[in-house]
Every structure is written in structure tokens, then in C-alpha cells.
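Subject line: Sequence and fold of a protein, written as C-alpha cells
Area: Proteins and the way their chains fold up in space.
Start of record: The labelled sequence and C-alpha cell lines come straight after this line.
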Amino acid sequence: MGLFKKKAVTKTYDKENKKPVIKVSICNGEQVVGFKDIHTGKIEEVILIKNQADLDAFKKMYGIDSEIEKEY
């Protein structure tokens, strides 16, 4: 029983040097969403996606409105 509602905190990321991507495993289809460094190509994994609600939560957390590109 909680009297106080948890505030939705919008996090930020470096929009000039990183872009959001979904990394998809070709073996088992596992999907992880995170940020890819534009210069090095390294992906920083943030959340394992089990369903559409996980992806929606990630988009809301970082204020992303557009589609996120998938990489295999």
C-alpha cells in the first residue's frame, strides 16, 4: 500500500554520438534494446525485451517517439 506515486523519470542519452537500436540474436530471436555509438559501433545494452510493453517502457524512459532500428 503506497500513498505516493513513483514519478516517471525521463533519462537522457548523447543524441549526437549515440542512436537507439534493437539488437536481435539470429540464433534464438532474443532482443535487447540499447544505444549504439555512431563512431565505434559499440552497443551499450540497456533492457532485455520480452514483450511490447518492455519496448514501450524504454521509449517512454528516454523520450523516444520514432521507430527503433533492428540489427542482427
